[in-house]
User: Which sequence fits this backbone?
């Protein structure tokens, strides 16, 4: 009997496909079967890689998105917080525009849906960790450029919250204009903070 060895590329494809589906339809409206189909993966493979089912796959999709964004942020933040902000905005602009306003952020999508039980699902815990990681990256960059600690933390939270909310507004309005307005104001706030 010939058994193929599990492929990390296949697992990552399933996770990336799940992140895309969640970014478009939300978690509650997406079944594990649909996530597998979207990733062009057999349902059996999906359960092989994610034996705990939908919540495990959703948690991995959130973490995958979080690290994917964080890698880009880290790279751009080397040039400073304004460059990091521009990269963060450009990333979401591309997702929203390329999907014809059908996709947003899977981290936000998981965060805003009502959990099926009173317990906090692992995907929501992962989403909180992702938001914290993004805030920490931005905050550290602001502090490196002279911002006071508390001011940097508050501004980093504002940036993440504003961008996430604006992505949702862009999808609803089917316009990129809210992102442009938010970008201008956030950049002005960052420049005012790092000058002081």
Assistant:
């Amino acid at each position: 009997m010939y058994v193929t060895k599990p492929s990390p590329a296949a697992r990552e494809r399933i996770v990336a496909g799940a992140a895309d589906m969640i970014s478009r339809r939300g978690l509650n409206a997406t079944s594990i079967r649909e996530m597998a189909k979207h990733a062009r993966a057999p349902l059996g493979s999906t359960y092989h890689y994610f034996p705990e089912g939908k919540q495990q796959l959703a948690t991995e999709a959130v973490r995958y998105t979080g690290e994917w964004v964080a890698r880009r942020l880290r790279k751009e933040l080397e040039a400073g917080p304004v460059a990091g902000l521009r990269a963060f905005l450009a990333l979401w602009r591309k997702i929203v525009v390329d999907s014809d306003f059908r996709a947003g952020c899977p981290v936000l999508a998981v965060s805003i849906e009502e959990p099926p039980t009173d317990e906090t699902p692992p995907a929501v815990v992962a989403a909180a960790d992702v938001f914290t990681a993004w805030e920490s990256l931005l905050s550290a960059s602001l502090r490196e450029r002279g911002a006071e600690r508390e001011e940097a933390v508050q501004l980093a939270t504002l940036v993440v919250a504003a961008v996430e909310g604006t992505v949702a507004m862009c999808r609803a309005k089917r316009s990129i204009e809210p992102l442009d307005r938010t970008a201008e104001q956030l950049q002005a706030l960052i420049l005012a903070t790092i000058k002081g």
In short: The radius of gyration is 18 Å. The first helix runs from residue 8 to 25. The chain has nine helices and no strands.
